[in-house]
Amino acid sequence: MATFLTPLVSIKPTVFSFPSQSVTSPHRQTNVLSLKPFPSPAGAQSSRVRFIPHAVETEEKPASDPNAESSRRVYIGNIPRTVDNEQLSKLVEEHGAAENVQVMYDKYSGRSRRFGFATMKSVEDANAVIDKLNGTTIEGREVKVNITEKPIASSSSPDLSLLQSEDSAFVDSPYKVYVGNLAKTVTKQMLENLFSEKGKVVSAKVSRVPGTSKSSGFGFVTFSTEEDVEAAILALNNSLLEGQKIRVNKA
Questions:
Q1: CA-based torsion, 129, 132, 138, 143: positive or negative
Q2: Domains and CATH numbers, the chain
Q3: DSSP-assigned states of every residue in 158-220
Q4: Greatest CA span in the chain, whole angstroms?
């Protein structure tokens, strides 16, 4: 019987090579695919996300109201002690409509402090009272009438020229008193009005935080004599001004 020998053929395995970026393992990714955005058409905005800072809105402050109470509140000074609230109201209302009229009294003695305030219904009424009553005479006393305070710019945007002119206008004197614990609403004019009832005031000022219109809570008043200084301290120390007890002593 014939024997046929079949030659052995050596077959070598073919190794297929794949790009590394497409070969992944069931358990881990051997290579991270790099994803690139499609190019934007010409003229189109970039697809990148940009963070825009939050826009801060600034609120416009409304213009000051010309009919605010401070523009309608009238100081009436150097009135006789015999004038009470009712009499002062009648006097004021001869020249304009009033919302409130009040004579200021000493807390301890109960005596009139020779001045009062009238809040008028309009600026026109306030101006009419000033025009008709300022400089008139009541029982031999010349009455002083004026608006209690001038508007001052807010501390965020102070009218520095106004403050500097007030400070430079202050006349110093060896006869001077310190006035402490002032309310924030007290002005130079209010100090002059109050202290002029006790003596001849040379000058007055409210100290302010540098660079702002904010009151520092104290001020100074100068007089022409030592007697006026003593009289002011005796009469006004611990008295009320704009709802606060003030301290008055020699500066």
A1: positive
A2: 66-147 (3.30.70.330), 176-250 (3.30.70.330)
A3: --HHHHHHHHHH----SSEEEEES--TT--HHHHHHHHTTTS-EEEEEEEE-TTSS-EEEEEE
A4: 167
Q: Token digits for 215?
A: 């009151």
Residue closest to 86 by CA, chosen among 77, 78, 98, 74: 98
3-state secondary structure of 229: helix
Angle between helix 123-133 and helix 85-93 axes, rounded to 10 deg: 100
DSSP 165-182: HHHHH----SSEEEEES-
pLDDT digits (tens, 9 = 90+) for 81-135: 899 999 999 999 999 999 999 998 876 677 888 888 999 999 999 999 999 999 8
Residues 99, 120 contacting (CB under 8 angstroms): yes
Backbone angles phi, psi at 82, to 5 degrees: -75, -15
Could you please report the per-residue DSSP string of 102-130? EEEE-TTT--EEEEEEEEESSHHHHHHHH
Structure tokens of 134? Answer: 């300022």
